[in-house]
Write a structure and sequence with these properties.
Length: about 270
């Protein structure tokens, strides 16, 4: 009996070691997510990370649902909830890491007050970030919405615009293409990761920027319910929310990416 128990214990240990030794495949946007994960690799070398950089409109939640990756790190909660409905899947959030404030950018005007009548503003075409963009335009006084509720919980569309004194025209474009639209529109509302990839500094270049305080759009480490308690996932969640990673974000992104721990002090 004792030998059997010892054998089972040894087998369990071997399985655990093999599980931990297997690479943890994480899908992530190139900037800043993959860069942060590369730092985690130096911080925690025993955690074997395989970073799968997203490109070309690849859906990281579909990759996760199909088992092609073990986790992803690129999205905020409202987007995740929308994806769960669209895919008919349930995912688990295991860490809330950083905020990338959404920004309004322009190559044609130097301030939002200088937007001409009939100006065209490009916005993300997915449901949650379109809504987020419209709330930002209201927050900056460009237009008014006929909607009650809170940013992140109440979805709005251009149909909810109730006051538009400058007769702004809203053009919906795929998020990765928004930086390229800047030459063709009067302004564009761009997600922080795509702004950084395009060489923009949200903290310096944006004409208007979301506040980090009470921001519901923190970027998350997401996995499946089956892997939520995987020791590798737990370790990565611990690393991503560590003081070292928060300090890395502060030093490398100069306010364009903000650790969740700092958001309460914005």
């Amino acid at each position: 009996m004792k030998k059997t128990l010892l054998g089972l214990a040894g087998l369990s240990l071997l399985i655990a070691q093999n599980l931990y030794a297997a690479p943890l495949r994480v899908a992530a946007d190139a900037v800043p997510h993959a860069e942060i994960l590369e730092y985690v690799k130096t911080l925690d070398p025993k955690l074997d990370l395989k970073i799968v950089e997203l490109s070309g409109g690849i859906n990281a939640n579909e990759l996760l649902a199909s088992g092609d990756v073990d986790a992803n790190y690129f999205q905020h909660l409202p987007y995740l909830k929308d994806q769960e409905k669209a895919l008919g899947k349930t995912f688990d959030v295991v860490a809330s890491v950083h905020i990338e404030p959404l920004g309004i950018y322009s190559r044609k005007v130097k301030s939002l007050d200088a937007l001409p009548e009939g100006a065209t503003i490009a916005v993300p075409n997915n449901t949650t970030n379109l809504s987020r963009a419209l709330w930002l335009l209201q927050d900056k006084g460009v237009l008014r919405l006929n909607a009650s509720g809170e940013v992140g919980t109440t979805l709005v569309t251009p149909k909810d615009i109730s006051e538009n004194p400058k007769k702004i025209k809203i053009v919906e474009i795929e998020s990765p293409q928004l930086p390229r639209s800047l030459d063709d529109v009067d302004a564009a509302i761009i997600n922080g990761n795509y702004a950084l990839e395009a060489g923009l500094s949200p903290a310096k270049d944006a004409l208007g920027l979301e506040s980090a305080k009470h921001n519901p759009y923190a970027n998350l480490l997401v996995t499946t319910p089956q892997l939520a308690k995987d020791p590798r996932v737990i370790e990565l969640a611990k690393d991503l929310t560590s003081p070292q990673v928060a300090d890395f974000i502060r030093k490398n992104y100069n306010g364009s990416v903000i650790p969740v721990a700092d958001a309460a002090h914005d």
